[in-house]
C-alpha cells in the first residue's frame, strides 16, 4: 500500500523508478522478516526457559516410590501371570548333551542374525529372564512388604535396614520392567525373550539384598547356596561359564559367601571398592561389571523447586561423621570444616526427621559434600543430584554409574583427598568457582536428574534404560569371551581376564 501511494505521487523520471522500486521492496521485505522474528520471539518467551523445561514434573502415572510400586506389583494380576508363561528354564539334571544342544541352537540363531535380511543383528538387546522358584523372588518381596512398616531394625552402623533395602532395590526395578507385559513397557532398546537360544543375556532375578537383611544368617547362607546351585545347573550357565549372565548384587554385603563362584557373571554394583574390603581381587572390574546408582532417599527437586530454592549455604553435609575403611576421611574433613562460615556439617539421624533435615539442607545449599563412606560411593551423591545441589566428590577410588554416557564434570566438582585436607584449601577453591560456572552445573543437574530416578514403568533415559545402553556396549566383548572360552585348548595361554594369578595358585575348590 505504501509503495503504491509513493509511486502515484512521484514525479521521478521513468529511468529512476526501477532502482527506487527495488529499494522500497527491500525495505518491505526486511520489515516482514522483522515481524516474523518478533512474533516467534514473543511466543517463545511465553513458554518456560529451556533450563526449566528440561526436567518437567514427574509423570503422575509413574511410580517412583519403591514401596508404592511394590504394593501395586504384588497385588496386580500381572505379578505372577507373567511367571506362568511357558518357557524353557531347566528344572532337574542337565547333561552335556543339553548344553551342546543349546549351544547349537544359539549358533544357528546368531548365524541367521548375521546373514539374514531383517537387520536383526542390530536389533534391541534380547534378555531371557530365569523363572526361578518363588523363594528367590516373590517370597522375598512379600517378606519386605509384610514387615517394613513394623521393622525399626538398624544395622551395626546405625542405618535403617529397610531404608538400605530401598536404596539398593535396583534388582526390583529392573525385574519389574523386564517381566511387565510388552504393551505396558516404554523401553525399546531391550526386549524379553522366552527361548534361551534367542537371548543375548540372561537375567538372574534373585533378591540378594532383601535376603541378606531380613533372613537369619544361617537361613540366608543356605538360600544363597540354593540359588547358586540352581543357576549354575542351568545349561546356559554351563555353556558360557556365566559370562552372559546378569547378577544384581548391589549391596556390598549381599551374596558374599558364594559370589566367588559366580565371578564370571556381569555384576550390577554400587561401586568397585578397589580397597579389597568388600570384593576380592579378580571379582569385579569395569570391563565386565556395571555400576548402578543408588535409589535416592530424597524427593526430586523439580523445575519449580529449583526456581524457588534460595541457596544461602555454601557447603552442606549431613550423615554419619565416623566411618570405617575408606570412609575415615570424613572425620578429618569434619575437623577441617567445622565452624567455618557458610558451612553446615551435621551428624545424621535415622527416621523421617533426619530425612527431612537432609532434604532441607540440600535444597538450600550450593554445594553438597560427598566423601567416601565404608565404600567409595554412598547414596548421598544421588540425593544431592536430585536436590539440585552440586556434589563435591572427595573419594579417590570412586567409579560412577553410566560414565560411558554421562559426563559428571558438568554436574559435580572432583577434589582429591590430599587437596581437601589442606587447611583452608577446599573452601577457598569452592569460593573461587564463578557464578556462571555454578549456574551451568545447576542447569545440568536439572537435566541429569532424570537418569537417576528409578520408576515403574521404566522411563526412557531413566537408569533402567541406561543399564541396557551400557550393556549394548559390552555385548560384543561378552560374546567374544564366551566364544573364546569354548574353543581354547589345554596348550593355549590362559583366558584373558583382569584377575592376577600367582604361581601355584589353587582353584576355588568345590561348591559350598
Question: How does this structure look, described?
Answer:
The chain has 512 residues and is an alpha/beta fold. The chain folds into two domains: 254 residues, no CATH class; 150 residues, Rossmann fold (3-Layer(aba) Sandwich), CATH 3.40.50. Helices cover 42% and strands 9% of the residues. The strands form two sheets. Strands 2-1-3-4-5-6 form a six-stranded parallel β-sheet. Strands 8-7-9-10-11 form a five-stranded parallel β-sheet, with helices on both faces. Helix 4 crosses helix 7. The N terminus and C terminus are likely disordered.
Write the layout of secondary structure elements.
Layout: H1 2-9, H2 17-45, H3 50-53, H4 66-75, H5 78-81, H6 96-115, E1 125-129, H7 138-147, H8 161-167, H9 170-178, E2 190-193, E3 201-203, H10 208-214, H11 217-232, H12 235-240, E4 245-248, E5 266-269, E6 290-291, H13 303-308, E7 313-319, H14 329-337, E8 343-347, H15 351-363, E9 365-371, H16 380-387, E10 390-394, E11 413-414, H17 417-420, H18 425-432, H19 435-448, H20 463-487
Parallel strand pairs: 1-2, 1-3, 3-4, 4-5, 5-6, 7-8, 7-9, 9-10, 10-11
